[in-house]
Amino acid sequence: MSALTADNAVDIKEPGYPAFPVKDGEDIYQDALVCLDANGLIVPAANTAGLRFVGLSRDSIQNAADASCEVDNHSWFLATGSGFAATDVGRRVYVADDQTVSAAASSRSMCRALRSGLTRPGRSGASW
User: Disulfide-capable partner of 61 in 20, 28, 29, 85 (CB 3.0 to 4.6 Å)?
Assistant: First the structure.
């Protein structure tokens, strides 16, 4: 196939929000940062070995058995954090807990978001 020489019409499908099963007994709050554990179950995000960051919870689920949670894994969002400077723009951020990101990497951090800019003290625009 050769390079374009004119505008190209591309079909775009909105990805929607995938749903993942929630680990029994966990409290997941709407718009919380969430991870998958080793069994593929949603848990609140934490700086814990074995967790994989997947996005922002679209649902609020408290201690429910056999629940599932929709996850926004494609939007930009504002994350709370500290220790950021204007020189950090474009650097990776790391999950600290279910509402906080950190500029500091550790052996248990999940690097999942790129800082896009500082919006106000303590807040950064981030995406994954």
Answer: 28
DSSP string computed for 27-75: EE-TT-EEEE-TTS-EEE--S-TT-EEEEEESS-EES-TT-EEEEE-SS
Distance CA 34, CA 56 (A): 6
- Quick check: 128 pLDDT over 50? no
Query: 108: helix, coil or strand?
Result: coil
Residue type, 22: V
pLDDT of 110 reads 59
Token pair 């990805």 is found at 15
C-alpha 79/C-alpha 77 separation (Å) is: 6
